[in-house]
Design brief:
By secondary structure, the chain is mostly helical. The protein is 60% helix and 3% strand. The protein is built from 17 helices and four strands. A two-stranded antiparallel sheet has the order 1-2. A two-stranded antiparallel ribbon has the order 3-4. Helix 6 runs antiparallel to helix 7, helix 9 runs antiparallel to helix 10 and helix 14 crosses helix 16. The radius of gyration is 22 Å and the shape is globular. 44% of the residues are buried.
Length: 436
Amino acid sequence: FFALVTPPLQAPDEIRHLARIFALVDGQMLADSPPGEWAHVEVPRGVMELERELDARRLYRQPDRRQDSARLRRALERPLDPDDRIPIRMPSLYSPLPYLPQVVGVAAARLFDASAALCVYAGRLGAWLFTVAAIAIALRRAPAHVFALGMLATTPMAVFEGASLAADAVTNGLAFVFCASVLKSAATRAPLARRELIELAVLAAALGLSKQAYAPLAALVAIIPASRFAGRRARVLACGSVVAAALLPTLLWMGALQTLKVAPLIASADPGAQLEFMLRHPLETAGVFARTLVQHFERYVRTFVGQLGHLDVRLPAVVYVMHPILLLGICVADGGRASPVRGWGRALALGIAALTWLAILVLSYVGWNTPGDEVVRYVQGRYFIPLAPLVAMAIHVPGSEGLWRPLRWGSLVAAAAILLLAALLLYARYWGPAPG
């Protein structure tokens, strides 16, 4: 429903993601970077004209305006000329990996000469299918915390992102599968099999390559008990291999980007100057991160639970209070004796989540902010969805019997009601009667 009712280009940065997907469909894995010019890719002109054709910018963060159904119908019917191409600056710095499901959807649609608008829906369908499959695998694989994982994966924001063209769909899905796989390995007593280790390494590599800030999540393998390894040296080598599998592709991709002259994402950003500022003023930089957490905490909660569309479809204020409390309660009660994460493993999971949060802030501060800015801007709570499973592992009560069955059903009903409310508000935002 979220994928279909949201008009094309009304998810955050969707025009950029669409351009990147079309470039990948045409085999442009990186970008052209002629001397003295910004790195660029070529996409069909109709893709970049879609924003104007739908008058999409008129809706951005203007909740009193509605989608013109006649414009959308014409856009859906307009053929896309694949040979009429224009160069644009590299629209996304992510690797091709987090766009693969969307690429498959768009490539399939182009076989039938679909319009650019139809390709948006096809790409969303690919992302949605991947999200459903990934979460299903995670829930089936996890030996504990299953209910908490399911509830965290079905917040309105997670569902909305899982049905959009953004790289978040693949990143979130991979994070949940990786965490569930580590839980399974931690709960097993037999010696760690080579195939199991290779699977963890592949998942870690895919996660790090999807979004570089999430590479630290690979360190979660350290919670696997020492009894599963032949010895201390074998354990260090195995865990180090998984962490290296996440870091190496990340560093290689970042190195590939360094060969390009990439236009800054924000006009006032200067990554080199920002890095120099951080190195010269470490205490002041630490203050920036602390100030960011305090000042933006309420915004992070809202955009973690669900602030849909172009962040202009808000849920009732009570949802942003009650839903986090519900999720925290479930994370505390779920897991219990069945969870393999105990003692120092809980502290480790929380520490890795904190380290990844810091990595997100650092990369955002370097790439998206004016040098010396007082807070880290543009970070949203949806970026923290991959960290939620680690928090669930860290805060559960180890000796509990798990969540009481009536409370499970009550939680499911509450979550379903919140999703239904979000769906109705999303529909009303774009297709309902305009205010006044």
